[in-house]
Amino acid sequence: VNGQDQGRGDAVPGYVRKIFDNNPVKDVKSADMTCNRNKGVNTKTISVKGGDKVTITWAHNNKGDEVIADSHKGPVQVYMAPGTTGKGNVWVKIASKGFENGKWATDELRQNKGQHSFTIPPLSPGDYLVRPEIVALHEGSKQGGAQLYMACVQVKVTGSGTKTLPAGLSFPGAYSATDPGIMFNVYDKPMKKYTPPGGPVKTI
């Protein structure tokens, strides 16, 4: 947060809902789409306030590992939800990068050693979940081929923000297996215009 390391989030105690393994979620209708296959609510939160720059670090297993194979092309996105359950139409997209200037967001993620950053909106104080997500499309030309990776970060918003998150999307429910941002051939020549799933980033 603002350049200050918060320690390993998926430790116990920690502030990330620890997932069981690094396998992708491929069924977009699965309950695992919310916070991945995880061990439940962790014991800590990290404190943030509106305007803070938050940097997520992805790793294959441990920090410093190869982040994701070079073949895995796709968008990197961030959703945020009020409360601690992640249930219902509560997930609001606050950051997204797909294919820009000839480069996939996953390529940039590798170049940045697994790190990507976003800004916390000026939200009213309370408990929230932050859900970073990678959609790997190297097998996305067929239905059910896309590989999704996500986790839920437990945050406590402090400060003097007054905004509330608008109605959002539900996970599962937000994506369909045939959505053009999910079922997409990254090998087409020329490649079609790509739009990440889940609609545009919301201005809050």
Automatic annotation (TrEMBL):
<protein>
    <recommendedName>
        <fullName>AA9 family lytic polysaccharide monooxygenase</fullName>
        <ecNumber>1.14.99.56</ecNumber>
    </recommendedName>
</protein>
<keyword id="KW-0119">Carbohydrate metabolism</keyword>
<dbReference type="GO" id="GO:0008810">
    <property type="term" value="F:cellulase activity"/>
</dbReference>
<dbReference type="InterPro" id="IPR049892">
    <property type="entry name" value="AA9"/>
</dbReference>
<keyword id="KW-0624">Polysaccharide degradation</keyword>
<keyword id="KW-0136">Cellulose degradation</keyword>
<dbReference type="InterPro" id="IPR005103">
    <property type="entry name" value="AA9_LPMO"/>
</dbReference>
<keyword id="KW-0964">Secreted</keyword>
<feature type="domain" description="Auxiliary Activity family 9 catalytic">
    <location>
        <begin position="2"/>
        <end position="194"/>
    </location>
</feature>
<dbReference type="GO" id="GO:0030245">
    <property type="term" value="P:cellulose catabolic process"/>
</dbReference>
<dbReference type="GO" id="GO:0005576">
    <property type="term" value="C:extracellular region"/>
</dbReference>
<keyword id="KW-0186">Copper</keyword>
<dbReference type="Pfam" id="PF03443">
    <property type="entry name" value="AA9"/>
</dbReference>
<comment type="function">
    <text>Lytic polysaccharide monooxygenase (LMPO) that depolymerizes crystalline and amorphous polysaccharides via the oxidation of scissile alpha- or beta-(1-4)-glycosidic bonds, yielding C1 and/or C4 oxidation products. Catalysis by LPMOs requires the reduction of the active-site copper from Cu(II) to Cu(I) by a reducing agent and H(2)O(2) or O(2) as a cosubstrate.</text>
</comment>
<keyword id="KW-1015">Disulfide bond</keyword>
<comment type="similarity">
    <text>Belongs to the polysaccharide monooxygenase AA9 family.</text>
</comment>
<dbReference type="GO" id="GO:0030248">
    <property type="term" value="F:cellulose binding"/>
</dbReference>
